[in-house]
Specification:
The complex is a heterotrimer. Chain A is mostly helical. Chain A has 15 helices and 4 strands. In chain A, α8 packs across α9 and α9 packs across α11. Chain B has 21 helices and 6 strands. The chains are: A mainly alpha, B mainly alpha, C alpha/beta.
């Protein structure tokens, strides 16, 4: 059982994360700044950000890689989780805001609001906010999936409406009257669980938390995909109508994995926000969600570990590129999309597998139901 | 009684013209402008208007355009003409030496209205018909009771039907505002304003003086109600027009997408960038014309249409040949690859043309507007609607009556069958992709007129275009037309109630729900053809 | 009044009509299948054979007509998954299976077991699972290939794997659409034997064009034409029917 759960790659990834969770705080806090081994706080925050993206990528891989649902709206779940955490952090500011209002965040005072909106109730409590960071995206995914999967919206149609979903949310969150800070979003956080959010120690702790959650995400993911449930997901991906005629309620399987994945994405967003210090409606931008898809594609979809690897690699590339040649980053990213789909359709890990195993199976679903039924 | 009054007034007017004694009064009146007080200015204005001096019109006009000045030292009142020359206000003689210090005659809002009304009165008898009409409209709006005599004089002389009706509207407006007018006259004035039925008429009818007889008031009230329902009708129609105009923009942006999606089942995420390329082509053509061939500047849009088609079409064929054909049967991968292409194209344009918006000017035939009943239609929008429909009709003809269209429809309906009947599906794919992209390019020419030409232009249309195609149903251009128009009109009707952003969100949510009920859109291909 | 044909039949179709955009794929199709019976369905292209299967398996909702399973279950009110769980298995014309999974896993997925997500995630497999899989692999002669990817099988092996999946499902009724299309003669004959074996404890409906194959099955034949039943009976009888010769067999 443990052996199937922790195959070689997962084991390596889990160990790496575990080492990082311990080593990074030491390198950052214990090793003196004069030492070449010292890790400056901004690097800690940067790698912590990569890890959050890696969690999002694992979530996306669960639905896309294993169940064939190409969601172009996972950025929305990530952002919702981020907003839940951001609301907690805003409430923690208390009377230290510019306007000194003990209850209302600054932007509400600025908008001349008198009372805290109902949506903000309870967010002074960390456990509640953490719960909401999972439940809010989960509920959205459940409602959306309930409608979409039961009506058998599949393929590119589903991709497009997930994109419309995140686009609509972006427009909504840009509005001041939504009560989530409008354009500017939520920022100027002071502390988390009583610790100063800017301090090196808090940053290191947030990093370790991200690494541990990534480990958990990989393990939960592996548990899902190695069970019979996972085999059914792959069956749905490869031949949806065959799975139906075998008696599987395809829509419930999709709904289950979509909801779990959205909750995981929400957790990633919740870890992301305290590390970058801001959440705004730009996080809902459709382009963000598509970018996450390419991380999974680069690493290798349907591999979980590959998705995480892809997220870290692509974002590391982004950091390097935008530092050295900011003009050319979009060219590079665009080319990455084209080249990976053309020449590396199974990603880095998939390509490694193919090298080991000679006769490559067709990667495309054999069932017409999975592809859109358009041109006949 | 009224006739007598009129007669006397006319006599007085006739008598006054050319009267020398009055000339002195006129000079006195003019000098009143130098007093630097609003009440003196008002008196002076009145005097000038009543004087019927030949210079009166020029002075009122100068006042209106804030070109009337006085020298504080000499109290001389002067007019600066458009060329900057300084003339004596009363005589019109050019001053050899302008006074060293000039102060402008100041106006407040009350005076400004008075000046406007005066100007209206002054030009009621102008030789230029357009000026007379404008003057009559000014009087109508001002409801200046004092102008009644002038209006009636002008009305008697007037031969032009438009000017005549404008004058009689003005007279009706005055009659309702003037105390002591007979009930019958006022009632007929109400009838006349009711027939006119615009906002101004409504304002006049709903703000009658307290002394107005009850019968007139009642009649005015029903007239207001009638005007209200008429205005509501036109405002709805105006909304429909705005909606159709928005729908045309959506149609232009979506129709190319409908073709590539319909024929190949491929989502082209770079479709918006084809639109953008078309807009930049327009920009380049216009810049070239400005620099090299100014005579062609007015026609640059017309020249840009075929060029944009070719540029975007060529890029489309290139994308199809180098990327998409290798991804056939893998629609999700195609989506990702074309998104990469869209990033590259955006950045390429940003590198070449800069990130800022580029200015594309409107040719003369696209500026201005006209009225159609109670509708205001701008030429720009009108041409875009006509252009969108022309593209639609052209495309239908291409698909229905050409061998290429026949093959394309065959591939859309049953790719395998078409292929086995000898249709070169590869070639059709490339051409269909080029066609769809080319049409997007043409859409870009039209959009350059109503949107900012920037590297992000395409982004703002891509999701809307998808929604139109999905809503209308794939493989059916009529569905795209109906989808675009429905969404356009719905958007414009939602806007006044919940605002533009919420309206858009509402429509997105509606489409997301709609696609659950009808996953294949309004007009989907049905039956076994799509199941294979 | 009790209808004997209704209550004692496994499958009961009466007056079933389906149309697509005005094209009438089925017009008043009526058919009864007794428990344990094997039936061959023949008919020219467009006769409505595949549409009939779509109606029985819940893929297509009929415009009118009655479709009952086991005399009580109204199949027009159920979706594919529910009908499959009732015990109706279907084999497609083109072999469809889960290509990126092993032969063994394909059978495992088909094996009769709880289908709910919770059961597949947390439930323990039945103790005889392995044994049942072995038995089926034996029947379809794929024991040696159990670890191979389904995609790597030959066409004939894929057809058999799919039949094996149907066996694993252990349905009361099997619908088989052109099982021998694209098979060699030897494979065709083996498949006929396999189906006859299956028919011993399952009801089977086979749609087939291959007359030799139908003859080898040696069962009652129903001829469909333009969405309705044209003739029914032993093969020799229907192939002598002048109407059948006219529309299908040729002069």
């Amino acid at each position: 059982m443990l052996q199937t759960l922790l195959d070689k790659r997962t084991l390596i990834a889990v160990l790496l994360c575990a080492v990082a969770a311990v080593a990074v705080p030491i390198l950052s806090l214990v090793v003196p700044p004069s030492s070449p081994l010292h890790m400056p706080p901004y690097v800690v925050a940067l790698i912590g950000k990569y890890l959050c993206y890696a969690i999002l990528a694992v979530a996306l891989d669960l639905v896309w890689g294993y169940c064939g649902i190409l969601s172009l709206g996972h950025g929305a779940f990530f952002a919702l989780g981020g907003y839940a955490m951001g609301m907690y952090l805003m409430r923690q500011i208390g009377a230290r805001g510019v306007y000194g209002n003990p209850l209302l965040p600054d932007f509400m005072v600025f908008l001349n609001w008198k009372a805290l909106p109902v949506a903000w109730w309870g967010f002074q409590s960390f456990p509640y906010a953490a719960l909401m960071a999972m439940l809010a995206p989960g509920a959205l995914a459940f409602a959306f999936g309930w409608l979409a999967f039961r009506s058998r919206v599949t393929g590119v149609y589903l991709s497009i409406i997930t994109q419309a979903m995140t686009y609509a949310l972006m427009l909504a969150f840009f509005r001041n009257d939504m009560g989530f800070g409008g354009n500017n979003g939520l920022t100027d956080f002071k502390d988390i669980l009583g610790f100063n959010i800017q301090s090196d120690a808090t940053r290191a702790a947030l990093f370790s938390a991200s690494a541990i959650v990534l480990i958990l995400a990989l393990l939960v993911g592996r548990f899902l995909v190695t069970s019979k449930f996972g085999k059914v997901l792959i069956a749905i991906r490869d031949a949806e109508s065959r799975a139906r005629f075998l008696g599987y309620r395809v829509e419930y399987y999709k709904l289950a994995v979509f909801t779990v994945s959205a909750m995981l994405a929400g957790v990633a967003g919740a870890l992301y926000v305290p590390q970058v210090g801001i959440i705004n409606p730009g996080e809902f931008a459709p382009a963000n969600s598509i970018e996450a898809v390419i991380w999974v594609a680069v690493g290798g979809r349907g591999t979980l570990v590959g998705a995480a690897l892809g997220a870290v690699l692509v974002n590391f590339g982004k950091t390097v590129f935008t530092g050295a040649l900011p003009e050319y980053w979009l060219f590079a990213l665009g080319l990455l999309f084209v080249l990976v789909t053309l020449f590396l359709p199974k990603g880095i890990l998939g390509a490694l597998d193919s090298l080991k195993r000679k006769p490559a199976p067709p990667i495309e679903p054999a069932d017409a139901d999975v592809a859109p039924k358009i041109a006949g | 009684m009224i006739l007598l009054q009129r007669f006397l007034l006319v006599c007085a007017l006739l008598f006054s013209i050319g009267s020398l004694a009055r000339a002195d009064d006129f000079a006195d009146a003019v000098s009143g402008f130098s007093a630097d007080s609003f009440s003196a200015t008002e008196k002076a204005l009145d005097g000038v208007v009543q004087s019927n001096n030949a210079r009166a019109a020029a002075i009122v006009e100068a006042l209106q355009k804030e070109r009337l000045f006085y020298a504080p030292a000499t109290k001389q009142v002067v007019v600066k003409d458009a060329s900057g020359a300084v003339l004596d206000a009363a005589t019109g003689a050019k001053l050899a030496e302008a006074p060293t210090e000039l102060k402008s005659v100041r106006l407040n809002n009350r005076l400004r209205r008075a000046v406007e009304a005066a100007s209206g009165q002054m030009t009621l008898l102008s030789a230029d018909t357009q000026k007379r009409i404008a003057a009559a409209q000014a009087v109508y709006k001002a409801r200046d009771v004092a102008a009644l005599a002038n209006v009636e004089t002008a009305l008697n002389k007037e031969t032009d039907p438009v000017a005549k009706s404008a004058l009689s509207d003005a007279r009706a407006a005055i009659l309702l505002a003037k105390p002591g007018v007979s009930e019958a006259d006022q009632l007929s004035a109400v009838t006349q304003l009711r027939a006119r039925g615009d906002q101004e008429a409504r304002a006049i009818l709903s703000s009658l003086p307290d002394a107005t007889p009850p019968a007139v008031k009642a009649s005015a009230q029903s007239a207001v109600a009638a005007i209200d329902s008429r205005l509501a009708f036109w405002s709805n129609l105006q909304n429909v027009w705005y909606g159709l105009s928005l729908g045309s923009v959506l149609l232009l942006a979506a129709i190319g997408l409908a073709i590539t999606f319909g024929v190949m089942g491929v989502i082209n995420m770079a479709h918006g960038e084809m639109v953008m390329l078309g807009a930049y082509t327009t920009f380049v053509v216009q810049e070239y014309a400005r620099a090299k061939a100014p005579a062609l500047l007015d026609y640059s849009l017309l020249i840009a249409v075929p060029l944009a088609f070719l540029v975007a079409g060529a890029v489309g064929v290139l994308i199809e040949r180098t990327i998409i054909r290798f991804l056939y049967g893998r629609p999700l991968e195609t989506l990702l690859a074309t998104f990469g292409v869209s990033l590259i194209l955006q950045q390429a344009v940003r590198t070449i043309f800069g990130a800022n918006n580029r200015e594309v000017s409107a040719p003369p035939f696209m500026s201005g507007s006209f009225h159609l009943g109670g509708l205001e239609i701008t030429y720009g929008r009108m041409w875009i609607v006509l252009f969108a429909l022309a593209v639609f009709v052209g495309l239908q003809i291409l698909l229905r009556f050409t061998p290429f269209g026949l093959r394309m429809r065959a591939v859309t309906q049953n790719r395998r069958m078409a292929s086995s009947m000898g249709v070169d599906t590869n070639r059709i794919d490339a051409l269909a992709f080029g066609l769809g992209s080319g049409i997007a390019g043409m859409a870009g020419v039209a959009l350059s007129q109503i949107d900012n030409v920037s590297p992000n232009l395409g982004q703002s249309y891509i999701i809307d275009s998808f929604m139109v195609v999905v809503f209308g149903g794939v493989g059916n251009l009529w569905g795209t037309l109906l989808g675009a128009m429905t969404l356009g009109v719905a958007n414009k009707f939602l806007e006044p109630f919940i605002g533009a952003v919420l309206g858009k969100i509402a429509l997105l949510v509606f489409i997301i729900l709609f696609i659950q009920k009808r996953p294949r859109g309004l007009f989907a291909l049905k039956g076994r053809a799509v199941e294979a | 009044m009790e209808n004997l044909a209704l209550t004692q039949s496994l499958l009961y179709l009466d007056g079933v009509a389906v149309s697509f955009d005005g094209y009438k794929a089925l017009r008043g199709l009526s058919l009864t299948l007794a428990p344990g019976e094997m039936r061959a369905i023949i008919g020219p292209n467009g006769a409505g054979k595949t549409t009939m299967m779509d109606v029985i398996t819940g893929k297509t909702r009929p415009d009118e007509g009655v479709v009952l399973f086991g005399g009580t279950e109204d199949l027009t009110q159920l979706d594919e998954a529910a009908i499959a769980q009732l015990g109706v298995g279907r084999k497609f014309q083109k072999p469809t299976m889960f290509e990126s999974q092993s032969v063994e896993d394909n059978i495992l997925l088909a094996l009769k077991a709880p289908r709910e997500a919770r059961a597949t995630l947390f439930g323990k497999p039945a103790p005889d699972t392995r044994e049942r899989i072995d038995r089926i692999l034996e029947t379809i002669k794929l024991t040696a290939h159990r670890k191979r990817m389904a995609a790597d099988l030959s066409h004939g092996q894929k057809q058999w794997l799919e039949i094996g999946m149907l066996l694993a499902q252990d349905p009361k009724l099997l619908l088989v659409d052109e099982p021998v299309a694209g098979m060699t003669d030897a494979e065709t004959m083996q498949t006929a034997d396999l189906l006859r074996e299956i028919a011993r404890d399952h009801s089977v409906v086979v749609v087939e064009h291959d007359m030799d194959f139908v003859r080898k099955l040696g069962v009652k034949v129903t001829v469909l034409h333009e969405g309705a039943v044209l003739a029914e009976g032993p093969l020799d009888q229907v192939s002598a029917d002048p109407r059948v010769i006219e529309v299908y067999l040729g002069r």
